[in-house]
Amino acid sequence: MSSAAPGAVVNRAAGDGTLRREPQAPGRRASRPAAGWLGVVPLLGFAAVMLGLPVAAMAAGAFTASDDAGTTSVTAANFAATLDGPYLESLLGSVRLSALTAAVATVLSLPLAHAVVTSRIRGLREAVLSASGVIANLGGVPLAFAFVATLGNAGVLTGAFGLGEKGWSLYSFWGLSIVYLYFLVPLMVLTLTPALDGLRPQWREAALNNGATGLQYWRHVALPILWPTLLSGFVLLFGTAFSAYATAAAMVGSSIPLVTVKIASALTGDVLVGQAGIALALGMDMIIVAALVMGVQLLLQRRTSAWLS
Amino acid sequence: MALLTASRPHRGSRLGRTVSLSVAGVYFLVPLLCALAFTVGIGDARQTPSLGAYAAIFTTDGLAQSLGLSLVLAGATIVLVFGLLLPALLTVRLAAPRAKAVVAVVCMLPLVVPAVALGAGITTVLRWATDWLYDSPGFPLLAALQEPGFPVILVLAYTLMALPLAYTTLEAGLNAIDVKVLVEAARSCRASWFRTLFLVVLPNLREALLNTAFLTIALVIGEYAVSALLGFQPFAVWTVAISGSHAQLSVAVSLAGLIGTWLILLAVAKSGRSKAPKEKP
Fold this sequence. Notes:
The structure holds two protein chains of two kinds.
Chain A: H1 4-15, H2 27-36, H3 41-63, E1 64-66, E2 72-74, H4 77-82, H5 85-118, H6 124-138, H7 140-151, H8 156-161, H9 173-197, H10 201-209, H11 214-243, H12 246-250, H13 259-268, H14 275-308
Chain B: H1 3-6, H2 11-40, H3 52-56, H4 63-94, H5 100-108, H6 115-133, H7 139-145, H8 152-176, H9 179-188, H10 193-204, H11 206-222, H12 225-230, H13 235-242, H14 247-279
């Protein structure tokens, strides 16, 4: 914040002659703004090809079907199939699991991140943040293994507490939820830390001096400030949980219908003709769900940040 | 900073802090400890405890190969991520501030496309390209993309998947310094653009660059969906493939990878912190 003011002065002083404010100037200078975009072009080009081509191919594949003779026709049958029976069930199962785990992780992460940020234990912050980075990114497979060893059918805790007889199964909706929380909570802690750092102690003191209780401070000051971060964090968690595949794939025997597992098995298994089209349609469904959630978040974000700034 | 006021203890919040840290500690440590117990054979009556699984790490076929492939891919991904992002982010700050929104959207867009869907899309593209390009000059290029020794297509996919993470990390780093002032100071001292970039701007971003690099390594080492769908066998896919026959080994290897990466990241964070006070005015 404090460096912005001198920066602005220098910008203005140097910007006049070189970089800004001459869109219609002739010759070399006119080419500057366009040339300025050169650095952005590789990134945009890469994203257009690497993101655009697969998504376009997926959309095309999802809307076409080829029969035995090899002729292709445009059809909506693939999408109709994804919205029916086991495929719809897997899609809804994924949405349910992701929404639940993302919400729980968001709520649980707030006190945890707050404790980490305000803790005075030396090195705790670095340890937790770097561990969060590793778990959230490397996650998937190792965590599935760790939980199979802990709570799986032959896991250490399952045996020690006789959980198997009590009806516990890691390969169920709740079992998978516990595993998902293990990589969602660290991701949320990472997201929340900068926002919590931005909460000034003076705000709390001002509230307390005005007679507010700690609860009122959180209810009327801290939470409204953190709201946009919590919201975008929730969406990030939902997207991560929704697209998670490695965990379920590594926990062989999972009977929970997840859309990612369905897509992968439709693509890789030695499948009947026509399954590939359904897999691509399911992929498009996933993109649509993720885009909808992100769009709603952007709308909400705009409304809340409008009065925050 | 109001350190004095911040350090005044609130009794209630201290209790809450202890509780939430302890609960989180138990939840996050117990599975790791159980996995550790499983790899050395403690807690299983049929086995005598031994470090055999860890010794096997160095002798098992395929591990060095898959881990090597993952690390090479990670290196290439980091180069490509920096090669694409740094020019774009610096351009946004120095020359084209109006591109900021476009760059932000493009970098966050990969979050909308789940890895499995991306993998499905890429297989489709590759299959169609094979049909179209068969017997044409483009075919060797297509084969090179999928060369099992160094699948470029995976580097491209990983780069796309690493963009959101790399963007947020690098943006945070760039927000902490004033690139424009640094560049103008260096340029008015007659530094070349090359020197300005490599001796002024990038050293100031050291911590953000290192963080991005290691988080990208973590992402590449842990990546499963796209690699598995495209039929390659880097580290994560290999550990799952052998988990049936060598259960202890696969868990031991994953644990070692997890903890090893964490220690490296921790070292990066520590080195960043010890430098920080010196760099502040």
